[in-house]
Amino acid sequence: MAIKTVIRTHRASIRNQRQVRDGLDTLGFAAAKLWNVARWTAGRVWNACGQIPDDGALKSYLKSHERYADLNAQSSQRVLEELDEAFTGWYGHRRNGNEKANPPGYRKHNGEHPRATVTFKEDGFKHDSKNGYIRLSKGRNTKAHWSDFILCAYDADPDVAIENVQQVRSVYEHSEWRLHIVCKHEIETEPPGDRTAGVDLGICNVAAVSFGDESLLYPGGALKEDEYHFAKKRAECDDSASRNARRLDRKRSERRTHFYHALSKAIIAECVERRVGTLVVGDLAGIRDDEDGTPKNWGPHGNLDLHGWPFDSLPSALEYKGEAEGIDVLRKDERDTSKSCSACGRKRKANRQERGLYVCDECGLVANADTNGAENIRQKVPPNPPAREDRSNGWMAQPAVHLFDRREGVFAPREQVTKTNREP
To answer: Which sign, positive or negative, has the C-alpha torsion 85, 91, 97, 101?
Structure first.
């Protein structure tokens, strides 16, 4: 039995919503205003010298600005860090060939500032675990007097211990404020076993899992249907910033998040059942670049899929859930795993044929291409020597397929998921 330290974010409702709403509104508006000031400043520097200032430069320049003092100092710093992250993400999209990506804009809607999320770090909150209260600090400009603060009475899930709080975020969701409380927990874990499994990530098949003697395939059809459905509905909105457009964006994000949550939960459950102690996941860093470092070009349709693919969502979720079950989740370079034969090691791009078929011209292996890739990834962690027996008609050629059941919100064997459950 091992003791592990894990970080978890718990969502909590606020019992005294009426008492704290105005105060949280003020801080939410202040965060939006500071973002806009920083965005305007970054734009001026960008136009003047062609360089976008990072969060360090913005903190140094804006720390004496009146908007900076509307929030606790650490909360203001976090707003500037978020802007820097937004610019970095936009630049990454453009570098990878997504010409439709736009730089971060101003936080306004019909001339009004929205209620932005506010982050409170160690100096910005006090936690009363005994009575279920969290005290949030205001900025110097938003205090009525020197000791003014916002006292939130919160309710979390009854089976969750709110302890060792690291940071708190006030988030405006569904017309009311909620708290996202980040806690550090120590948990006892024991690996389910000593076996190793490999996961190959993809777009059509979101994940293929190899256990060395059997394999599972998780198609991403339901996720792709959602993406096209919401993109079509979004295009029908006259105003891209309208309430309906924001509702569609929120629903699209929630469905995607749930899909990856259900998928990671299903994979970890299969690993526990098969006594897997180590799960190896293909590391897709640089997937959008060719070998010479230039952005890949898969054509208009292919680029839309490639650049809209949140390839880090599943590995992060697997790490999160695997940790709680005592499973070590490792990321290994997946380069050439789709070209190499998992039985004999022969590497040849032409072996991967159409419709997901892999046929080795050296040893005669016939396999599902994604399963072959997952087995190659599994073999990256010893002791997992490549098996040499003929598996052309076995588990590599015919993986078990699990589909997303929309009605239940879980993954299940294909024969259990009806067509009606797969409609968006």
So the answer is: positive
pTM recorded for the entire structure: 0.70
Give the length of the chain: 424
- Distance in angstroms (rounded) separating the CA atoms of residues 115 and 6: 30
Q: Tell me the three state secondary structure of residue 203.
A: coil
Q: Answer for the pair 180, 168: CB distance below 8 angstroms, yes or no.
A: yes
Q: How far is residue 62's CA from residue 215's CA, in Å, rounded to a whole number?
A: 55
**What sign does the CA torsion over 1, 381, 329, 414 have?**
negative
What is the per-residue pLDDT across 221-234, written as a single tens digit (0 to 9) for each? 888 888 888 888 88
d(CA 408, CA 259): 12
For residues 134 and 328, give the distance between their C-alpha atoms in angstroms, rounded to a whole number: 34
Partners of 196 in the β-ladder: 278
Instruction: Please answer whether residues 2 and 326 qualify as being in contact, where contact means their C-beta atoms are separated by less than 8 angstroms.
Output: yes
CATH architecture of 195-422: 2-Layer Sandwich (3.30)
90-123, pLDDT tens digit by residue? 887 787 666 777 899 998 866 677 899 999 999 9
Q: Are 82 and 35 spatial neighbours (Cβ–Cβ below 8 Å)?
A: yes
Q: Omega before 382 cis (within 30°)?
A: no
Domain boundary assignment for the chain: 2-189, 195-422
